[in-house]
Amino acid sequence: MALTKDDIVNLMYNQSDLSKTQSTKAVETVLEIIKGTLANSEDVLISGFGKFCVKDKVQRRGRNPQTGEDMILRPRRVVTFTCSGVLKDKLNGKR
């Protein structure tokens, strides 16, 4: 099961001295800062967690999987995530 924004708010509320309203505002503020930074094509680095990067995809040839028809995919921007070594070690049970 995925961790939702509401789950994060509830965890913050239960693990801190913040009220539910303050927890909601804190989570919303952090996410807005991250979204705004990425929208400006800047990377977001969270020490011990990972790095969100905006990458530009160039126009390329693709195929519609339903019809098999060739098509041109427009250039676009995507967000990638690379986890930190600390998180990678934690996921793999290393210290």
Plain-language structure description:
There is one protein chain. The chain has 2 domains: 1-40; 41-95, HU Protein, Chain A (Irregular), CATH 4.10.520. It has helices at residues 5-15, 20-39, 85-91, and strands at residues 44-46, 50-57, 60-63, 70-73, 76-83. A hairpin with a 3-residue loop joins strand 1 and strand 2. It is of the alpha+beta class. Helix content is 40%, strand content 28%.
Give short descriptive properties of this protein.
HU Protein, Chain A; 2 domains; two-stranded antiparallel ribbon; alpha+beta; 95 residues; 28% strand; three-stranded antiparallel β-sheet; 5 strands; elongated
CATH architectural category of the largest domain = Irregular
Counting structural domains, the number is 2
Q: Could you tell me the strand content as a percent range? A: 25-35%
CATH superfamily caption of the largest domain:
IHF-like DNA-binding proteins
CATH class of the largest domain: Few Secondary Structures
Task: Give the helix level as a range of percent.
Answer: 40-55%
Topology as a string of helices (H) and strands (E): HHEEEEEH
CATH topology value of the largest domain = HU Protein, Chain A
Distance between the termini: 26 Å
